[in-house]
Amino acid sequence: MGKMRKRRYLKSTLENAIYRARQGLRKTMAITDRIKGRLGGSVPITPKETHTIDKKGELYDFLISEERLDFANEQSPVVSILLVFFNRAELSLACLKSLKQHIGIPFQLVIVDNASEDETAILLNRIDGAEIIRNDDNRGFLLACNQAAERALGHYILLLNNDAEVHAGTVESAVAAFDTGAGIGVVGGKITLLDDTLQEAGSIMWQDGSCLGFARGFNPEDPAVNFVRDVDYCSGAFMMTPRQLFRDLGGLDEAYAPAYYEETDYCARVHRAGLRIVYEPRAAITHFEFASAGKSDFAIRQMTKNASLFREKNRGLLDTRLPPESSNIWRARHYDHLKPHLLYVDDRVPHRSFGGGFPRSNDVLRALAEAGFNITLVPYNFPDEDSLATVYADIPRTVEVLLGVGRTNLNDILRQRAGLYGVVWVSRPHNMSHFMTFVDRAAIAGAQIVYDAEAIFALRDIEQARVEGRPMSEEQSREQIAKEVRLIESADHIVAVNEHEKEHFIDYGKVQGSTVSVLGHALDVTPTAAGFAARSGLLFVGNMDYEDSPNVDSIRWFLNQVWPLIRRELPETTLHLVGANNAPSIKRCSIDGVQVHGRVDDVSALYNQCRVFIAPTRYAAGVPFKVHEAAAMGLPVVASELIADQTGWRENGGLLAASSSDGEAFAKQCISLHRDEAQWRNCREQALKLIADECDPAVYPRVINDVLKALGITNAASAA
């Protein structure tokens, strides 16, 4: 038979086969519809059935077309993707298409076909640029993976089930995860089923050798499965590991052939090699599950046999795992489950751009994460402010952020996780007051309470009353402070923001100095590059959401009493207001020369552009972060006398001070600093020296360590 004639014959045969298959598919769908109609829709088609129907249609469309799948790549592959086929060509095609569509880095594709009996052989003939191994019999997943790994060229290999479809950015996220920390041997991802619930988000090895996929049935958007953590093992449906490590460990242990427990055992060997298994939620797949294997009697017997083998081979590791009890699930989702679990309560997710104490809270959160705690963050008063797309902009991705959980429903979560948290860290007095009043104490029984005052707000209230012409008596002032300090009665340890406020806690609270630690601000000295002549304008950075807040009060005063005087002397000068600004007086501001930017995630360009930073605060407590940050960025400051006293910089040239009740004096200082280059340079240099001395980031780990010692926790980082 000639080549052309043979080709026409094969094409005709294929078209007839597809036609018959389509006719059978239509008949099946018609019968299903009639059955559903008769039963009034009471017999639903399962997601798997619907998916199969859709994917078979796509397979037939592909096969009857002239389309081919080309995986050729001229660049060295970053990752080699290993696929094992056994029938279910429609799912294999969907998997291949997802790889073509959703991977943006060079990769090698290695396919092993275990003697499929459906359209798989025809599909394979339509693939270019892949390594294809055709076995004469079904060797099973394990042996076929080891076969494929021998052909791998990439730095990493990815074990991927052929009934899985990768999401956009999945492979890139898994590769990037290896660069996020030392000693990572395996990265796994979030596995979603066809009904849009989770199959697993990392998996648990129990002490008896049994296993559990964490979070099965959860919503994939649940905060509990959207942070990075070390886990016991990851499913072989999606498991990435360095190629050299895979070879050094001898690949998948063939004692488990043909299948079951092979990926669990591999991860156990990775642990024994001193390496980590990391769950990366941004690496996500949709998984059909059991497409080729099913749950036959043989499969169940094989699982039982291999479970026994796994226990025998990994007794030492299993002795460090928890017993298989439902009460242990939340703790066991972390490989390092012996590390203390810490509940961190603050108003909101502490993004640095909010100002108002949140930059410091952000630093505290980071320091606690670096100290080794397993952290859960509760945005107590603004639980719905963030989304998964925004929440980790400047928050460590190892922190679980309970989006949607706040003061009204936190107890529900704590009861589910009763006994999990050994430390509860509560920031700000209003949160401490509410939390200790309404929390279910039984759900946090045994937890030690750290009260992070952030500031003594009574001091701010006292000053605000004075500014507004309703000063408190000395007795009233003392009672205000004493009332707030009484919050420490429920605390095992107190964190103050400076030595001055620490003394208030000791004096009013009658506590030992050893139970009070000081954590100020952590800032690197990073002066912006522009010189005096290249700069112009004034800058204010801070949260301006509320009319009665210190920031909005200070800006209203500055705009009314100071800005007109500055514009008269410096008519071309611009005042830049940066920060969230829902306060109507700021939002509607249309004063000449004033530019309202709103929230800006990276303010460095404005720090490099402007010549003077203003802090006209009339009432406040704590230490003003915005002044420290401006100084660290090399931007000289004109501040109110209150801020000058809080920083202690009045006498040493770190800033220029003026009364916040004298607009003319404040304007004079701003104009002088804006015009006088020598004064500007001296102020800048002095402030940079002060920041280096007072805001050394190295202080944070030492203080956190002191807090741990006070709580009887020797070293959270090594507790596992």
UniProtKB/TrEMBL annotation:
Superkingdom to which the source organism belongs: Bacteria
GO MF term (any one): transferase activity
Keyword Transferase carried by entry: yes
Swiss-Prot/TrEMBL keywords: Transferase
Database matches in InterPro entries: Glyco_trans_2-like, Nucleotide-diphossugar_trans
Domain Glycosyltransferase 2-like: 80-245
Protein name (database record): Glycosyl transferase, family 2
